[in-house]
Amino acid sequence: MIDPAFTLEKKTAIVVGAANGIGRATALAFAAAGARVACRDVEEPGAKATAAEIEQGGAQALPVHLDVTEGASCRAAVAATVQRFGGLDVLLYGAADSDRTATVLEMDEAAWDRVIRINLTGAFLMVKAAIPPHPGARRTARPRAP
Ligand SMILES: NC(=O)c1ccc[n+]([C@@H]2O[C@H](COP(=O)([O-])OP(=O)(O)OC[C@H]3O[C@@H](n4cnc5c(N)ncnc54)[C@H](O)[C@@H]3O)[C@@H](O)[C@H]2O)c1
Question: Candidates 42, 50, 116, 117: which one to mutate for ligand 1, based on the most atoms within 8 Å of Cβ?
């Protein structure tokens, strides 16, 4: 339940992992709060379904395929969002993967590396892509310590 006083009017948000779970719920909540929402996911049909639901509610949405394991895909997702909506204000990272069936003893290194890449490195790559100067980027300066 989102606080009715919370507003994202005229803000643009990228929601990573928008096809399912927390990402999907957050994308819908951001749209309900007035945001334009770029719905990103490696699962493209799911991202499109979330975007369609947002547009049916009267808000703007942009579904785009994103694989957070690839830096180029992260940069392209940010660029497409800025091009479409003219800026970027909010980044929500909800991409995740896990092997719920395997214990530590059963899980091999490749599977471990993939989980780390999606759950951790992908967040780094998306933040890195979102922060560099690009047309329309808005930054908030951190206050200096007294
Ligand atoms: N759901 C809960 O109640 C809950 C509670 C606490 C913590 N968490 C944690 O929050 C995170 C998200 O949980 P969730 O339930 O929303 O997960 P989820 O599996 O429902 O959603 C994750 C999304 O990430 C996407 N994704 C996977 N690989 C990707 C990639 N390479 N590029 C782009 N997108 C990719 C998936 O397609 C999926 O849509 C997980 O780390 C989970 O452990 C969840």
Answer: 42
Q: Helices 44-56 and 21-32: crossing angle, nearest 10°? A: 20
Among 77, 36, 81, residue whose Cα is nearest residue 54: 36
Q: Mean pLDDT for the chain?
A: 91
Tens-place pLDDT, residues 89-127 = 999 999 999 877 888 899 999 999 999 999 999 999 999
Task: Kindly give the number of the ligand 1 atom that is closest to the alpha carbon of 18.
Answer: 39
Q: pLDDT band for position 6 (50/70/90)?
A: confident
CA 46/CA 38 separation, integer angstroms: 13
Q: What CATH number has the domain bearing residue 34?
A: 3.40.50.720
Q: How many domains does the chain have?
A: 1
Residue 85: give the domain boundaries: 12-130
**Cα 118 to ligand 1 centre (Å):** 9
